[in-house]
Amino acid sequence: MPKREEIRIRDPFILTDKEKGVYYMYGTTALENGLRAGDTFSAYVTKDLENFEGPFEVFNGSEIGFWATFDYWAPEVHKYNGKYYLLGSMKGEGKCRATHIFVSETPLGKFRPVTQAPITPAGWECLDGTLWVENGVPYLVFCHEWLQVGNGEIWAMPLTDDLTAPAGEKKLLFRAGDHPQVVNNREASAGGASGKVTDGPFLFEEGGKLKMIWSSFIEGGKYAVLEAVSDGGIFGKWEHKSSRYGFDGGHAMLFDGLDGVKRISLHAPNTPPNERAAFFKW
User: How far is residue 94's CA from residue 210's CA, in Å, rounded to a whole number?
Assistant: First the structure.
C-alpha cells in the first residue's frame, strides 16, 4: 500500500465518497520523462489521504484505438446527473492538445468517451477542462494554451445536459497577463518559446460569490495557485487576488473532507520527478 510521499503525481484531483468513507485521487500519473506522459488514466483510493490503494487503471487509450496517444494529463472526475464524468487533457501526433470527456457508472470505471472528437474547439491547443454547473447549465471551463496564443487564456462554454456538445457560444473569461503577479514562463522543451501560462482552473462558491483558483508562474519562477473572484457568475468581471502560498506548487482544486473540513489539493514541488500530492486546510 503506497504512501502519499511515494506516489509521483501532478494535478491531483480528489473525489470524496462520504457513503463509502473513502477518497478517490486522480491525476497525471503515467509520467515518463519530464512532463511527457503515456496513454492511461489511473486512480488511487484512500481513507486518510496518506495511505493509498492502487493505482487502478480507469482508462487505456491503446485498448480502444483512441485518437490521443500520449500526454494524458490532469484528469478530474465529477459526479453529475447520477454518473461519473472524467475530463482529461491529451494529445496525438499531428493533433492539437485537447480536453475529452468520458463517462462511467462508477468512480473506478472503466470510463468510455462520450464522443469521438474532443469537446474543446478544433484547431485550438487546449488543456485542463473542468466542469461547472450554474443555474442548471453545465459549462466547460478550459485553458487556451500559451504555446498557441502567447498570453494564456481561460474560456467558458455551455454544454448540452449530456455533456456531448456545445450548447452556445464560448466566451473568454480572462488572460494570464490580467493577473499582475504573472510573469513569462520559458520552457526549453517548447523550443525556447515564452509566454504566460494558464493552468488548472477550478470553480467554487464561497461567501455568496463565484471564485476560481488557477495556476501560473509568478516572480522568482515559482508555480503558484492564484485566485479570482467574479462580480456576477461565470460571465461576470473577474478580479484577481494574490497567491496564498509561498512555495513552488499548484494545479489545485478544493474538496470537502470526510471530517467536514474543506481542503485544497495540489502538487508540490513543480519540479520533475519530485512532484507529490499535498493537502492543506482551505
Answer: 37
